[in-house]
Amino acid sequence: MFHRMPRAAAGVALVLVLAGCSSTAATPTAAPAATQAPVATQAPVATQAAGGAVGSIVMIPKQINNPYFDVAFKGAQNAAADLGGTLTEVGPSAADATQQIPFIQTATTQGAKAIIVSADDANAIAPALQQAMAAGIKVVGYDSSPAKGAYNVFVNQADTAGIGKGLADMACDEAPSCTGEIAVLSAAQTATNQNAWIAAMQTTLKDAKYSGLVFDGVYYGNDDPQVSTTQAQAMLAAHPNLKVIVAPTTVGIVAAAQVVTSQNLIGKVFVTGLGTPKGMVDFVKSGASPEFALWNVTDLGYLAYAVAVDLVNGTIKGNAGETFTVAKVNSGAPYTIGTDSVVVLGPPFVFNKANIDQYVTSFGF
Amino acid sequence: MTQDLRTGSPQPDSSPAPIEASTGAAGRSGSVMNRVLGSLSAAARLEVFLIIILAFLVWWGAQLSPFFLTGSNFGFSIQAVMEISIMALAMTPIIITGEIDLSVESMVGLSSCVLGWLWMEGVPLQLGIPIVLLVGLLGGLFNGFVVTRWALPSLVVTLGTLALFRGLAHVVLGSTVVTNFPAEFRDFGFSYVPGTNIPWTLLAFLILAAVCCAVIHLTWIGRQVFAVGKNKDAARYSGVRVGTLKLALFAVSGLVAAFAGVILTSRTSTANPDNGLNMTLAVVTIAVLGGVDINGGKGTIPGVILAVFILATLKSALTQAGISTDYQNVAVGLLLIVSVITPLLARQFRILADRIRLGRWRHRLRRGRPARDPAAGEVVR
Amino acid sequence: MALSVPADVHAANRGGVLIGRLARSRELTLACVTIVMVTFVAIKAPSFLASTNLISVTALTAIIAIAAVGEALVIITKNIDLSVESTMGLVAFVVAIALKQQSLTVPEAWAIGIGLGLVLGMANGAVITIFQVPSIVATLGTLSIYRGLTYWVAAGHEINISDLPAGYTEAASQTFFGVPLFVLLAIAVVIVAGLALRYTVLGRQLYAVGSNAEAAATIGVRSRSTIFLAFALSGMLAGVAGVLWGIEFGQLYASSASGESLAVIAAVVVGGVSIAGGSGTVVGAAIGALFLGLINNALTVLQLPQEWLQVIYGAVILVAIVTDALVQMRAQRAKARSRLR
């Protein structure tokens, strides 16, 4: 048996080392989970307010370490500080719905009071969410909606038709005399949000006002900077007369603006779409992207958390027609829950040279 | 110590003791029992190691969270890894023969899309699923054909089909995502055996694992697989049809990947061209964790089964602790490297311990060089 | 004394020998195929050859080519490095953070980045040579570990272009006499690596270890230190590629360069470097990267339906390796036949 012992001993030793490594490698964005874990991940973050009565709320973004969702998380953390409750964020490293499922199920077994989730795939996580709801957990969707029936309330960042019209309007503004070829640089081919916004934009474009704009097609950048860059390059080569690139994705718009800049096409090709102020500030000032839009992502997170707290406390039930207010969002003006239990955050902000610096500071992202 | 005839480098015996029958000495061991014992004792060492890791992880997980040892946690944690586990069963014999199949994840996506497309076109699932399995078989045959017909390295061929099958998946469905599968279909992938916490897919996995174990460890097919893995040319000269064997293994891998695709589609109720993305490396991780030698010739199915549970337990423990997938992957990567290093280190310890025991440590401390002990009249390992 | 062989067999032999000579230079074959492909695409879509398009495409391709040179060194020694994408991502991010915090000057940051790549490569080499872990397994592990390091360093933030020094990303589009700066850099790397592979002892050792480690050992080539060096160099070149990645994109995320490992390996393989080790050149690897990069661009410029892009890309890789194998087989048969005379 002598030869087995070093192996076994080494085995135990290695796993102890592994345990040591794993416990210190906790993601910095996670506040301590509501378990009796002796694993001290880090000192409790100031999100824990005195009110533990709300309980633990778990936020599951599409993808962890994604700057967009980190901003939303900060908003939710602010809300947790104001409204109470323990907030944790966990999620997949890639935008993969099957990786979200175990986190939802774990939150269910750990007795979370609410789950705030942005669905990588509306239907894939629906059964897990329905199980959670059956266990009495409130489910709030944000940014990307789970399937109907798999959430109590969905906080939509902006009205789909409104975004579509906004994209069309910005393209019209940027194309000289609202005339010229335009093309779309989107995220994944199956991205629900982007596809809905593009469809809404194409519906708007049918209007006579936009008759000068020629739609050249949709290219898919998969929310990957490299793919978005190569697609933008190929797009420009395929359509030498392209005037406007519409990129309704924060990754794609930066890639497109950069390609336009590096190919010295500023003033000949314009970029618009949805982007973060901080990411686009140089491009707005240089003229590569005179106009683009987004909503207040921090507020989105704040609102989602506030809705979750309201649901947990029973203030709202999630039915259409109910109203509620959130002190720090929308200047306290009341929100009304619409059909399919959807709440819209508010109109998007349009950024341009005049206001970009102010928004970079006030939004912080 | 046997010599690897391909490279001539000394290789440790996979069987522990010279007296008991070993699989290596073909023909010396007569009875089935001896052969089974031989291969099992070769497996025993690594499995003990894996069982210890598993036991430790279970204990550690229980420390992390009171909800870890619950039945429901077990249920969904194991369910989450069933697709890659099933593919690992088919990947194991391929790796043992010295090949690899990187295209499994794309076949998952392709089969998922074909199933979705058929469903969209109104084809009932009873017909659709067999068609999809056939598609997987054909894809695997394609892989096997290109690898065996032109003697091309499978790493490269399946790198190409990785992209090719994924592309075909996009062609089949485009930007459509099919989600309106019937609830009964979803129940297979997502639900448990009534009254228990055992997912249906775990049953499927265990049945497949039992079949695989029997074929690979107890039948002549399995012995051919190991023979090819240890020495392809010697196997061919002994009458093993190497090309046909590999073709069959790739075909099975494709078929199994298609089945995994059906399971995934059922569990998520979604047919999406991106289904299965990033699964290949997880499948290879499980196989290697389970003791399958990536250079071929060694590996056991029980080891792979243990590796499946180890991976599920590790991920479950980390999820319970609130750690996201990014750092879970780091833990898996560390575990992988350490689990491969440890047996090698243990062997070095053993060699060193033997040398110290025999007083030969003063000279010949260089690794890998056998020391000759004239007094004992044998080569000291 | 020559056997009397009919004239048509002579002719066939000559044809076979010619193909053999052509095939003996895989790189030449691939270069020819690339030129044919470019011509074909240019006829259908002239804008493909527009200087703006070519400059931006080749600049990005150059980054992959540099990483492919490093990967080729590793593959020549009969190993593989799956972690190159994580090395690139980590180096790119670390350099960008150093510049964002303005704690280092730009050349210092680059030096740190390349040094980091070297260290990461040496770590790979150590695990593989000292602990005898098969390279595919070791780099599979470090793929996740290095990516985890990137997540940890990023701590949830991205790098915006505004965080970097003014004009930092302009270097990606600068040209000298019409040739992008990055392409010149890639060419320099290829020349240095190619000459080193061919004319230095280390280069010969890499090939020796890759074709037959045991035989190499008998003539005194220590395979372990050679392989360690191969991985160290590969890591360093991945570090260079990471620095250039940061310059090219500016906007960096913790997941930057995800998925590039397979693209790099595909480039190396298409470029004629055998996965079984012992043969192939870095020139081939670089041309492979160029070829695949141009194909990617061409497929979209030709306005082929988006769904078909990946199918064609995969088919191209398969056709490339199958053709390569067929041509090699035919050349060998022709060589054997010509010996009969």
Describe the structure.
The complex is a heterotrimer of chains A (about 375), B (about 375) and C (about 350). Chain A is α/β, with parallel strands linked by helices. Chain A folds into two domains: about 160 residues, Rossmann fold (3-Layer(aba) Sandwich), CATH 3.40.50; about 140 residues, Rossmann fold, CATH 3.40.50.2300. A six-stranded parallel β-sheet of chain A has the order 2-1-3-4-5-13, with helices on both faces. In chain A, α3 runs parallel beside α4. The relative contact order of chain A is 0.12. Chain B has about 375 residues and is mostly helical. Chain B has one domain: ABC transporter involved in vitamin B12 uptake, BtuC. In chain B, a hairpin with a 4-residue loop joins β3 and β4. In chain B, α3 runs parallel beside α8 and α3 runs antiparallel to α13. Chain B starts with a strand and ends with a strand. By secondary structure, chain C is an all-alpha fold. The longest helix of chain C is centred in the last third of the chain and has 31 residues. Chain C has a single domain, classed as ABC transporter involved in vitamin B12 uptake, BtuC (Orthogonal Bundle). Chains in contact: A-B, A-C, B-C.
Characteristic key phrases:
heterotrimer, B: about 375 residues, mainly alpha, ABC transporter involved in vitamin B12 uptake, BtuC, two-stranded antiparallel ribbon, two-stranded antiparallel sheet, 14 helices, globular, disordered C terminus, C: about 350 residues
**Termini Cα gap of chain B:** 8 Å
The average pLDDT score of chain B comes to 86
> Percent helix among the residues of chain B?
55-70%
Question: How much beta of chain B, percentage-wise?
Answer: under 5%
CATH architecture of chain B: Orthogonal Bundle
Beta fraction of the residues of chain A? Answer: 15-25%
Question: Please, how many helices of chain B?
Answer: 14
Order of helices and strands of chain A: HEHEHEHEEHEHEHEHEHEHEEEEH
